[in-house]
Amino acid sequence: MLCWIYGGVGLLSLVLFLSLGELYPSIQLVMRIVGIVIAVFFGVVAGTYLKRYRDQAAGLYFGAKSFIDQASAVSCGEITWKDVTGIKRVEGRELLLIDVKSNEKVLKAAKNRAIGRLLERNVALYGTPVVIDGSALNTNFDELRVIFRRYFERQKGKKIHEN
Q: What is the pLDDT along the chain (163 residues), one digit of tens a residue?
């Protein structure tokens, strides 16, 4: 659903800016460039949502030794439980912050430089590259937190306290 909304916004923006360019010939080139840039941006966003919608492997997978984050375009891949040091949540948002022993290890394992930069931004904002957006998953956020806590406690043999 979101892919169609973003695609529509991109197309509408393109038509709007091209029309404005026709009305104001002095800024026609600027309006065309802005319209194209906005259309491309929303097209990429729509494509990302469409890919995730069609991707049967997208999601979050839990195992005895690790979990695999494939929940978003900026996922970290496989993270071993021995590398996890804690779990936090962001108040007012459905974000789980998974603290790891070495942020650098996760950053080096990024699929490409663009994802690496986005993971670096996660580190700057949240202190960890592993940020899981619960709203991107088809599950209840509280259930997701309970699952993470259980796996973590099982592997570490100790209780954790979430913030």
A: 555 676 677 777 777 777 877 788 888 888 788 878 888 887 777 776 666 555 555 678 888 888 988 877 777 888 998 899 888 988 888 889 999 999 999 999 888 888 889 899 999 999 999 998 887 777 888 888 888 888 888 877 766 555 5
Q: Is 16 exposed, middle or buried (0-12, 13-18, 19+ CB in 10 A)?
A: middle
Contact 111, 77 (CB under 8 A): yes
CB 156 within 8 A of CB 149: no
Contacts of 102 (CB under 8 A, 6+ apart): 83
Q: Residue 57's Cα: distance from chain center in Å?
A: 15
